[in-house]
């Protein structure tokens, strides 16, 4: 049986031989860490689109030949959930992500199909694409959590700070900004889920939830 997508949190990305960045987000969502809703459109779907002659490839550039048919394949044959939220497309590469698309609505045929083809065009070999809901951004940055450390290193647009690690059932420091308290909780959940082995994350805080946007091992 051919599978055409793997929803984040289904714990199926590894079974479908998706690259590590997608597998890590899948595992994080399965562990109930705050990962935005999304799914991985698998390489099998790209192959299906070629078989159905709804896309074309020339000199490494992929374009939609029949946008309506490509859109129909994704939602009616592959049955990808048609969410109302604005999403972005992130090409999955062996050790990271390709360029993130401009925001798209899934009901906008031209916008979505062009973005799918642009994502496929930056990949060689496997062509798996992450379609993920785009959170509102109030604060965003990166964080590094190291083994046996007492603080995590946070990078923000305006500079860096050391954020005390939470252990056990320890509460966040109420004197910290709310986003920092939520980030502390996210990083503690990350260590519980993946182990205290050294991780770097990209995070986005929307004023209510601190979302895990990207995760990779340190080193």
What does this structure look like?
The protein is of the alpha+beta class and 219 residues long. The chain is 28% helix and 29% strand. It is built from 5 helices and 12 strands. It has helices at residues 20-30, 43-51, 67-77, 109-121, 178-194; strands at 5-7, 38-41, 55-58, 61-64, 87-93, 96-97, 129-133, 139-145, 151-156, 159-164, 199-205, 210-217. Strands 1-2-7-5-6 form a 5-stranded antiparallel β-sheet, with helices on both faces. A 5-stranded antiparallel β-sheet has the order 10-9-8-11-12. It has a two-stranded antiparallel sheet with strand order 3-4. Strand 3 (55-58) and strand 4 (61-64) form a beta hairpin. Helix 3 (67-77) crosses helix 4 (109-121). The longest helix has 17 residues, at 178-194. The chain is elongated and about 55 Å long. It starts with a strand and ends with a strand. The model has no long low-confidence stretch (mean pLDDT 95).
Secondary-structure blueprint:
Blueprint: E1 5-7, H1 20-30, E2 38-41, H2 43-51, E3 55-58, E4 61-64, H3 67-77, E5 87-93, E6 96-97, H4 109-121, E7 129-133, E8 139-145, E9 151-156, E10 159-164, H5 178-194, E11 199-205, E12 210-217
Antiparallel strand pairs: 1-2, 2-7, 3-4, 5-6, 5-7, 8-9, 8-11, 9-10, 11-12
